[in-house]
């Protein structure tokens, strides 16, 4: 009896010493299949999408077949909303995740560590990579991969009133490691941003009562940033005030300028389309874009 008690105590003490997996070393053998009792109840957020997610039961699950089968994502739901966030936690923060056939990824924060958890084999195995630490309360967040190996993460934090610090991180190995670019030097609140390729990237600033677009561009992978020149016709001064992320169409770049949070021109939803032929350094107006137009 005495021996049995000692053995029981010894087993309990050792079980308390189990540690969480280190970054890049999540257990490939973990059970990632959602329990059958939960599967029957789960409904995707976007029922028309083949690849979708759900946050039901305060857990994160993804599907590749419109909800017929579900895969559990090994991250706590609340960690995906950590930071400056005012929503109801019913849907994920826009641009904070990727759902694609060959890549799913979720950006989150825990204990001032900005982390990306991702899978390249439809949830069979998962990896985590540390983006940066320590990092203050995160506000803006965006992750994307323009190609297989190259990706970017844009985050902001440490906000005071209408000022904050924004940071850009790049990966060239599919998300395994991240390196911060040089800072743009702008302290206005960031509204959007992104990279078209390994060299060309943009940051758009101004979310509180903007009166003109504030778009910065890099053509050397973030080593240097400069303010883009946007030639806005007088008719649209203080109408089109916030730049979205530019895209490449054929041989030129295009960008949409929206009216910000207080726009009232034609109902506030009309945007201005501008084009650039010098890789985003200067922009000229092309046309108005109606809400129902293909952008």
TrEMBL record:
UniProt xrefs under Pfam families: DUF6242_C
Annotated ranges, domain DUF6242: 51-236
Domain of life: Bacteria
Protein name: BNR/Asp-box repeat protein
